[in-house]
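Running this now, will post back.
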Amino acid sequence: MASRRDTLLQQLGITQWTLRRPAVLQGEVAVSLPADTKLLIVADVPPAEDDPLVRDVLLSLALTGEQVYRLTPEQVTMLPEDTRCNVWRLGLSEPLTLAGTQLSSPALAELYQDAGAKRALWQQICENEPDFYPDAR
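Update: finished.
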């Protein structure tokens, strides 16, 4: 149901706009990725750089810590719309609106305890190998 204000604005012929990213006006700034970023790790609580399991995954992808950027889902919405990067979603079931390959796994605490989840992550890496190793084509 339209409010009185909405009705009055419509009668006056005034177009109302809805912000796509209102958080930008609340003091948050756009996030820009370093040029050498090859993988985004997106999690509600991004893992520490020195986490052993994360280091093992990065080693398997032949990536260094400098080529990885850690973000929360809220920060991903602040990325430019044309951002293209491979993503590892830790504990996030819904795909992100970013172009690039998206790996999905349970949150890190659960991943440590679940060998099946580790195997599934490894299978995703193998299936998307050309996206992570473009020079191997």
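The first helix runs from residue 4 to 11. More later if anyone needs it.
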